[in-house]
Batch of 3 targets.
Target 1
Amino acid sequence: LTKPRSETVVLIVEDDPDQMALATQRVALAGYKTRGADSGVALRDDLGKLGAPDLVLLDVMLPDCSGFDILAELRRHPRHSLLPIIMLTVKSDPADIQTGITLGADGYVTKPYSKAGLTQAIEKVLRLAA
């Protein structure tokens, strides 16, 4: 991505308020703009109203659907098929990680995570998307 961090928008999809606050803080401290959605419905609403962000951090366990299902849906969508997506989840079993990668995730970060680890994952995916 060629734009500066301060103009790069990361959409965080997370239903747990504490985890949302933590992710938002860590992404903002790394210099990125943030948006938030707490469900699949809220994600779809955000994309419809505000357009695609530069990157999505997507939890797997959401109240109204699976993040894996959202990932597959976005990969099939003509406008969002190339949207950089990093799964950010507690689901750390190798089978879950493989599912995310197979469905098209550009990265997979497991909770708990460090600010540095998350920032590195975001930078790597954005470089690959550029």
Note: The chain has five helices and five strands.
Target 2
Amino acid sequence: VTVRGRDHRSREVYDATIGVFTMVNVKRGFTGEYKPAPVPPLPETDDPLELEKRAAALETYKKASGFRGQDSGTYAGQEKILHPDAWSLNPTLPPYEPYFGQEHRNHIGSVHGGHILAEMDRVTQHYAMWMTQHDYFVTAAFDSIEFKQPILPSMLVTFRPAISAIGKTSITIGLDIYIQSHEQPQQQRSHHGQVWLVALDQNEHPIKISLKTL
């Protein structure tokens, strides 16, 4: 998915956000539970317009997957450096317990992934400000978000953060999400992901950051 913006002065169109979403096809069984089901392959075609669309989709996937920096350890050309003080700060980060109610459900009854991502975005902003004492961050990318188990509105949800890496102007915060229920009181990890944030000054330019002194 590519989200484009348009500058209201110059009318220039630009790419604002690029991402790849991996969806799992599910089917309701006799017990009422949803389970993964095979996805029919794309039909063969000689239509040049359809082939062009598929080629463009593949290029979008390649471009978006570059955010992850799998080979170079970088985001958009910025080096990620593991900070020596990160490990000492991580144990001091308090957990966060968001509320997901019936209004957050998707069509199969669990919490919609979009609400989970939005909550991850909000809470990592707060953690970044708390750890650096810098008050303006923007989210540059979500990295390696894994949806391991669904969250139901009746569950107790806990976000546990950890600093993954820090650069001159950026910080990467990992989040593990745990769930509990009356039927399963022991915490189970439902989601894992990392959010990359960049600090900006009042003119919206990247600014050097430093971790909070313990």
Note: The longest strand covers residues 188-199.
Target 3
Amino acid sequence: MYINKKDYTLKETNYYKEVYQKTQIVVGHSGRKKMRHFDAWANRRNGNYKKTAPYTIDIDGTIHQHYDPKYYSDFLDCEQDKCNIPIILVNQGWLKLNDLNVYVDWLGHIYSKNIEPIEKSWRGHKYWAKYTKEQFLSLKKLIDYLSNEFNIDREVINNNVYDENVDLFKGIAFRSNYSRDLTDVSPAFEIEKIK
């Protein structure tokens, strides 16, 4: 498994250089096209933005490491962040049809895939950008690697909905398990593909 550790590296001001035992891998998505979320991370708050993740998996399956996963960030804005390893999938998230009958994301960017989005009403939205098979393959490999490296249980939460006890769970969870307001991972995510 190849991990790109040079093209999208964050500065030490974008995470906390402290080490805690890891008990969870938390999967979310970027809500943006391409690697645009990385530029936002690197430049927001004068380069001191800490709501980041050590990994991003691009739509072609390329894994980018932004910082060493033994450290942590404010990914979820809770104490559990110290014990989590977040992974972001490049995905536009929820979509809507504009006046021209074109799917756009929350920023108005066109959903440019040749694949119809998933249609499912969930958390106030109806259409969802699909994740790619290349992302699922890379995600599964990265989860296997991190589970072995950090001795994290390989059990996966079976849904993407809020769970008040998610902080006690040992294994693979999703950012949407932490809040009823978050939409990642979306209904387009096929959980069985990472089990």
Note: The chain has a mean pLDDT of 96.
